[in-house]
Amino acid sequence: MFPLPLVDLVATMQELTESQKRVKVLWQEAESLAFVARGREYRSEFHINDSDEFTYMIKGTMNLHYRRSDGTEDVLVIPEGSVNFMPANVPHSPRFPPDAFALIVERKRREGEVDRFQWFCPKCDNFLHEERFVVGDYRADPVSKAYQNFFDDEHARTCKKCGNVMPRP
Asked: Which N-terminal stretch is annotated as signal sequence (predicted)?
């Protein structure tokens, strides 16, 4: 892997802003994956994957929603310049505006590993739906694909418990 990568985070944030893209993969090697993410104002799902994650808030503040082992939801506020460690398999939902940016470093997915994206009813917190993806290349943006599948399916967005329909973003 020569030459060694050197990343200008300010230039990367500018590129994402100008292109309106949400993610720029910085590298994707056998045991390491790093990317800069621009906030998704509509994010509502909880992501579950088999890798630990390190998040550094480059610009702005993130409200990191996560589910405890008993299923209850909690929020960790990550201010600009701060870092967070998220253990593998903890359902988490990084929520931050499109003018905020985070650097995420984790292990590249191993062959056959499945990323899961889960939604819960915003009215009663009942489980709504899960999307699953085997992510061979993170540049394929599995989050956007999961959202498209979920929001294109009104049945998936309808709560079986209270009947609430989660609105499209």
From this structure: none
